[in-house]
Design goal:
By secondary structure, the protein is mainly α. It is built from 16 helices and seven strands. The longest helix has 27 residues. It is globular, with a radius of gyration of 27 Å.
Length: 397
């Protein structure tokens, strides 16, 4: 803080003035107060805030973002950063959050102590300005590293849609298909011996992910991310969050309590985010399409997710219709997930967390907010598919 103060120009009202060098008649030489001048650091901080506000408010063409960022710059960035992240077991996000917390606490503490001892608030004002500029810089970094993907061409504009909004009966029929698949795949998805290879290293899942990406875009395929634990693990448990992508390090962080049959879909979902599909419905779409192309265990995970999603959207009578045809094995898995969620969630924190996330999604132009998670069902029922659940892109039909 002291180095910052030493670089700023004198501020009017603090008793520092400059005298004119030219003599005036009668020997009178007026003292002219100096005007405040922005220092170099202040100028940079002001420009950062202005740039952040402009990037947040100015509308960008989705087709241009798609061409020069989502399928241009971003894939090369992701294919560079994610392999570095995969090489280590700890989460880069933890390091970033710890350093950020220390910097904020130290800065604010020093400013408050200085204000208390001097009875002046100039350092507090300077610290607030630094924090505002820092937040602006973090937002700009977020957009450059990943966040601009929120403004790319959305899936309904990318794919051929053949049907109108699905009816309740169509949703239930899709749910019944999911239940049938869960029943038939259960035994193969629950082998007697535990899986040795982690989900993110499974060749079948990785190959399926590359296939789905090729069907949706001509961009270079994204590098799948390692599933990492984090200091945020307890928070995930308390709020019912399954996973996230660190937008600054392009790494995948998951809830440590996930059950084995949940992990393939969560991995594929988060890989969808790594591929630049920021919208939750689109990541769900990619995650499901990936799982049903892979091994029996991965397929079960995908169909289990779809059942779970549909059962949360239909009414009680329709849900009972789905549950009536569940076999004992899938029913045990459903109860296991319910027990996992109920055993760790803090309802008040969960509600507050999802409200904040809803505002975050809407601020990034996802109008449906957290309801966007469920839009995958509509997308599955409206999109045109070639054999093997291969989505048909516009211009390719």
């Amino acid at each position: 803080m002291s180095s910052y103060e030493s670089k700023t120009a004198p501020i009017a009202g603090r008793g520092k003035t400059v005298a004119s060098s030219a003599p005036y008649a009668g020997g009178y030489n007026p003292r002219v107060p100096s005007l405040p001048v922005l220092g170099r650091l202040q100028t940079v901080e002001l420009l950062a805030v202005i740039a952040a506000v402009a990037l947040g408010l100015v509308p960008l063409s989705a087709t241009r973002v798609e061409s020069w960022y989502s399928t241009g710059f971003y894939p090369h960035l992701q294919r560079s950063l994610t392999p570095v992240s995969n090489a280590v077991s700890f989460a880069f996000l933890d390091v970033f959050l710890v350093m950020l917390a220390i910097a904020v606490v130290v800065s604010v503490t020093r400013a408050v102590r200085r204000a208390w001892h001097t009875r002046t608030f100039s350092l507090l004002a300077h610290t607030a300005g630094h924090l505002l500029a820092g937040a602006a810089a973090v937002y700009i970094l977020f957009l450059v590293a990943w966040g601009l993907n929120y403004r790319r061409v959305h899936m309904p504009d990318r794919l051929v849609l053949d049907r109108a909004a699905p009816s309740s009966d169509q949703v239930v029929q899709l749910g019944l298909v999911a239940v049938g698949q869960m029943n038939s795949l259960y035994a193969a998805a629950h082998p007697q011996t535990a899986m040795v290879v982690p989900a993110w290293k499974q060749p079948a899942l990785r190959s399926a992910f590359a296939e789905v990406q090729h069907a949706l875009s001509d961009a270079p395929p994204a590098e799948p991310g390692r599933l990492k634990r984090s200091l945020l693990g307890p928070y995930f448990r308390w709020t019912g969050v399954d996973g996230m992508v660190n937008p600054f390090g392009l790494e995948v962080i998951v809830n440590p309590d996930l059950l084995p049959f949940e992990r393939p879909f969560v991995a594929a979902h988060e890989w969808g985010h790594l591929a630049g599909y920021a919208d939750e419905a689109e990541a769900n779409f990619i995650g499901w399409l990936t799982c049903i192309r892979a091994s029996a265990a991965d397929q079960y995970s995908g169909w289990f997710y779809l059942y779970w999603q549909i059962s949360g959207e239909v009414n009680g009578q329709e849900r009972a219709r789905l549950n009536a045809v569940l076999a004992d094995g899938p029913r045990r898995d459903i109860n296991a997930v319910i027990a996992r969620l109920r055993g760790g969630e803090i309802p008040a924190l969960q509600q507050a967390s999802w409200q904040v996330y809803d505002k975050y999604l809407k601020a990034n132009r996802v109008e449906a907010g957290v309801r966007s998670y469920g839009e995958v069902v509509t997308l599955l029922l409206r999109a045109r598919f070639a054999p093997g659940w291969t989505p048909v892109r516009r211009g390719a039909s």
